[in-house]
């Protein structure tokens, strides 16, 4: 999966990484920055998704599609696909170009809109990665876990870097009897939950 990464995916990842690095240095406003995950988190997502049970894979918070590309590697390996949601139109336009350039638009469905408005129509969720504004994590968790298949995986980014803001949410998840959960110290920290 990682050693034979298609050239188109690798090249687009490099383009997005350069943009993300410039965003962090040039004072680009917070909401306009790409705010990408590090590559090690991307690999962790790909490995997790490739081992998830059968069902629907979703991502909430596409940005320009960098994290989605990592998960697309897993989809290529398993024959699956992924639905990804981005609420900001400017980023959704970039993501659409990312998926076209990386030649994964056949396995990635991009929805420009609020995921909350679409979740009712999605069943049998087997994998979910959340990387959006932190105040919405709990709301997405509560909406997704009941729709998740047994042994399905719910992952949320920034569990360590934003641990102070996310503490009430994380404490709630760690004590939820419907899941087995822990924080994995990869990248900025990933809250990793498996539904029982």
Automatic annotation (TrEMBL):
Question: What InterPro entries does this protein map onto?
Answer: Cation-dep_OMT, SAM-dependent_MTases_sf, SAM_O-MeTrfase
Instruction: List GO BP terms, alphabetically.
Output: methylation
Superkingdom to which the source organism belongs: Archaea
Which Pfam families did the record assign? Methyltransf_3 (PF01596)
Task: Supply the alphabetized keyword list.
Answer: Methyltransferase, S-adenosyl-L-methionine, Transferase
The UniProt GO MF terms for this protein read:
O-methyltransferase activity; S-adenosylmethionine-dependent methyltransferase activity
Spell out the PANTHER family in the cross-references: CAFFEOYL-COA O-METHYLTRANSFERASE 3-RELATED, O-METHYLTRANSFERASE-RELATED
This chain belongs to the protein called Methyltransferase
Q: What is the lineage of its organism?
A: Archaea, Methanobacteriati, Methanobacteriota, Stenosarchaea group, Methanomicrobia
């Amino acid at each position: 999966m990682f050693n034979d990464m298609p050239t188109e995916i690798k090249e687009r990842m490099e383009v997005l990484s350069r943009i993300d690095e410039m965003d962090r240095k040039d004072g680009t406003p917070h909401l306009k920055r790409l705010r990408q995950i590090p590559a090690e988190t991307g690999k962790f997502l790909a490995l997790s998704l490739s081992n998830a049970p059968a069902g629907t894979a979703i991502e909430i918070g596409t940005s320009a599609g960098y994290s989605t590309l990592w998960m697309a590697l897993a989809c290529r390996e398993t024959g699956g696909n992924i639905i990804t949601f981005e609420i900001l139109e400017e980023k959704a336009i970039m993501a659409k170009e990312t998926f076209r350039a990386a030649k994964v638009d056949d396995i990635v469905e991009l929805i420009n809109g609020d995921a909350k408005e679409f979740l009712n129509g999605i069943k049998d969720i087997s994998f979910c990665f959340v990387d959006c504004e932190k105040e919405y994590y709990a709301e997405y968790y509560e909406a997704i876990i009941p729709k998740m298949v047994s042994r399905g995986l719910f992952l949320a980014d920034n569990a360590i870097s934003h641990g102070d803001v996310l503490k009430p949410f994380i404490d709630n998840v760690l004590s939820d009897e419907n899941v087995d959960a822990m924080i994995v110290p990869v990248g900025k920290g990933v809250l990793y939950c498996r539904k029982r």
